[in-house]
Design goal:
With 45 residues, the protein is mainly α. The chain contains two helices and no strands. The longest helix has 19 residues. It is elongated.
């Protein structure tokens, strides 16, 4: 998997999560995990 594709995918996931966060509070935990993974990926690249 190339870096741009994975980055675009994680951004898309984050947008979905943030739109659902109001309805489902547990989704904010998932978003925190995604954000951490994105930060780590950005650090590696």
């Amino acid at each position: 998997m190339t870096q741009p594709d994975s980055l675009a995918y994680s951004q898309h996931q984050t947008q979905q999560v943030s739109s659902n966060a109001v309805k489902d509070p547990t989704k904010t935990k998932i978003q925190e995990c995604i954000n951490k993974k994105r930060l780590e990926a950005a650090r590696i690249s």
